[in-house]
Design a protein that fits this description.
Blueprint (H helix, E strand, L loop, with lengths): L1 H6 L1 H10 L5 H13 L5 H10 L1 H9 L13 H14 L5 H13 L3 E3 L21 E3 L14
Helix pairs in contact: 2-7, 3-5, 3-7, 4-5
């Protein structure tokens, strides 16, 4: 899936319209993860934290193995990964990723990823359960603004 997303010129153009200076592979993978995994999916979050979003997507959906960055799998983690893949694969739709990026552009939404200046760092406390992206309409600066007193 990951390579197909990177080869799709229309999807890349839609991403560039939202994030002209971002990391193409990581940004498109995070957008895909936002469609594939449920909010708070700790298995997806752990893979993204360990491998990066692009490599995690390749590992999870394309069956690419050969990474020594994953911890040794126990029976429990192997079962959790198998169950997660069964949830993710039906949602892995190339067209949906391009569609959501184009739709975000049409409504003036922003795509925020961890590390962005406007990313609310309090979300990082959720660890593996933190969102992979935030789709934001309006002023994303309000996500990190301090309290207002009238």
């Amino acid at each position: 899936m990951m390579d197909s997303l990177l080869d799709d010129a229309a999807t890349i153009a839609a991403l560039r319209a939202l994030r002209p200076d971002g990391d193409t592979e990581e940004d498109i993978a995070r957008a895909a993860w936002s469609l594939i995994a449920e909010p708070g999916d700790g298995v997806a979050g752990a893979l993204i934290a360990d491998l990066g979003a692009g490599a995690a997507l390749r590992f999870a959906l394309d069956g690419e193995h050969g990474t020594d960055r994953l911890p040794a799998a126990t029976e429990r983690t192997s079962r959790a990964l198998a169950e997660a893949r069964a949830r993710w694969r039906p949602r892995a739709d190339l067209r949906a990723v391009g569609d959501v990026l184009r739709a975000a552009g049409h409504v003036g939404a922003a795509l925020l990823v961890p590390g962005d200046a406007q990313w609310p760092t309090a979300l990082d406390e959720l660890g593996d359960h933190a969102p992979s992206v935030l789709w934001v309409r309006g002023d994303p600066g309000l996500l990190t603004a301090g309290p207002r007193y009238w």
